[in-house]
Amino acid sequence: MNSLQEHPAQNFDVEAYVVDEEAVRLPRDTAADTVRPPITVENPTLRPVQNAIAMATIWIPLLGTIVAAGLALYRGVGWLEIGLCAGGFVLTTLGIEFGMHRVLAHRALETHRFIKVLFAIFGSMAAEGRILYWVASHRRHHTHSDTVYDPHSPHVRKLNGEEQKLGLVRGIWHAHVGHMLTDEITNCTLFARDVNRDPALRRVSELYELIVIAGLALPALIGLIVYGTLWGAFTCFLWGGLVRMFLVHHTTWSVASICHRFGGVRFNTGDRSRNNFWLAIPSFGSAWQNNHHAFPSSAHLGLRWWEIDLTALFCQALSSVGLAWNVRRPAPARIKKQLLSAPELASKLNASA
Ligand SMILES: [Zn+2]
Ligand SMILES: [Zn+2]
After folding, report:
1. How far is the CA of 265 from the centre of ligand 1 (A)?
2. What is the pLDDT of residue 175?
3. 179: closest CA among 160, 161, 149, 152?
4. What SS3 class is residue 128?
5. Residue 267: per-residue pLDDT
6. Which domain holds residue 57?
7. Which of 82, 169, 177, 237 is deepest in the core (most CB within 10 A)?
8. What is the reported pLDDT for 351?
9. How many other CB atoms sit within 10 Å of the CB of residue 48?
C-alpha cells in the first residue's frame, strides 16, 4: 500500500522533500511510487527506546515542576530563577518555532547557516526530539493532516494497523502526549532528507541528548556562579531547566491537541486546523494553525494585523538587519482566493459542532 499516493498533499509540496535532488529526476506522473520508502518504519528494537525517551520527556519536567512549585510555596522563588525560566522559554520556543518549524521544516525564509544551526541547538534544548525526527514528523503532519497517517491528529489514529476514531478526551490526550507512546516511527530519510544531508544539522541531530543535558546544566551553572551554593545551582536547574521545559512542551503540544479541535476557521485547508488567539501568544504564533495549513510556506502565520505572531516579528527583525531574506508571505489575492465562503464556513462549523 502506498500511503503517499492514497493521501496526496493538498497544500504541501511533498515532492520537494521526498524526491532525491541528486538522483535523476523523473517526471512526477511517471515517478515510480514503488521505489519510495513507506512513510513510517517498522523497527521493533527502536520502539522500546522511543517509549523510554517519551516517558522521560513527559514525566521528568512535570515532576521537576511539581518540586519547584512546592519549594516556591515553602521558600519563595528568586528573580534569577524566574529570569532563567523566562529567558530559556523565549530562546527554546524560538528554537522550535523559528528554527525547526519555519526555517527547517517549511523553508519559509532563508537565513545564514550559523543562525540555522544556532536555533536548531536552541530547539533541541526544548527536548521535543532530535531535529531530524521533529522536522520529519512535522512534514508528515502537514502531508496527512487529520488522517490516520497524521502522527498526532486529535480526531483519528492508527493503532495496531486499525483506524480508530477518537472522541473529545481521548483525541486531545492522543494529540497532546499519547501519540509519543503509540504512533509508528516516522521515516526521517523520506521526510527530512535535506536536513539529513546537511553535515552540521545532522551533527546537531546526533548530539540531541548532549544538547538537552547542556540546556539543563547551563542554568545550574549560572545558579552556582551567582549564588555560590549547590542549593542555588539546584533551584536554577529546576526553574531554568525543568520548569522551562515543561512550559515549552505543553505550549507546543497544545497546538497539536487544541488547534486541530477548537478555534476559528477562515480558510479551506482540507483538514481540521483551527486558529486560537489565546494560544498564539505563548506559542509565538504557531496557534494560527488554520492560517498555517492554508499557507504552510509562509513565514507569517498571523495574517491580519491583530493576529499576534512573535516569530514573524522575529523574522522581520532579522530581515531588517540583513540576517534573513526571502521571508515568504502569501499575496493578498492568494489569501482572498482561499477564504471559505459563508456557506462553506457554516457547514464546517456545523460539522465540528
Ligand atoms: Zn497542524
Ligand atoms: Zn508547520
Report:
1. 13
2. 95
3. 152
4. coil
5. 94
6. 3-267
7. 237
8. 66
9. 9
pLDDT tens digit sequence for 246-288: 999 999 999 999 999 999 999 989 899 999 999 999 999 999 9
Residue 260 forms part of a structural domain: yes
Question: Would you say residue 142 lies in a domain?
Answer: yes
Residue 283 Cα to ligand 1 middle (Å): 13
Residue 167 CA, ligand 1 centroid: distance in Å: 18
Tell me phi and psi for residue 152, to 5 degrees: -145, 55
pTM: predicted TM-score of the whole model, two decimal places: 0.88
Q: What's the CA-to-centroid distance between 152 and ligand 2, angstroms?
A: 13
How many CB atoms neighbour CB 199 within 10 A?
8
At 45 the pLDDT is: 82
| 205 belongs to a structural domain | yes
Within a domain: residue 159? Answer: yes
Dihedrals φ, ψ of 125, to 5°? -65, -20
- Three-state SS string across 24-89, please? CCCCHHHCCHHHCCCCEECCCCHHHHHHHHHHHHHHHHHHHHHHHHHHHHHHCCCHHHHHHHHHHH
Neighbours of 287 (CB within 10 A): 29
Q: How far is the CA of 85 from the centre of ligand 2 (A)?
A: 26
C-alpha 347 to ligand 2 mean position (Å): 25
Residues forming a β-bridge with 324: 111
Residue 8, exposed/middle/buried by CB under 10 A (0-12, 13-18, 19+)? exposed
Residues of the chain with pLDDT under 50: 1-34, 353
Alpha carbon of 120 to ligand 2 centroid (Å): 16
Distance 353 CA to ligand 2 centre (A): 25
The DSSP element (H or E) to which 165 belongs, if any, is strand 162-165
pLDDT at 346: 74
* All residues at 6 or more sequence positions from 121 whose CB lies less than 8 Å from its CB, including other chains: 95, 204, 211
> Measured between alpha carbons, how far apart are the two ends of the chain, in Å?
34
**What's the gap in Å between 108 CA and the centre of ligand 2?**
10
What is the number of domains present in the chain?
A: 1
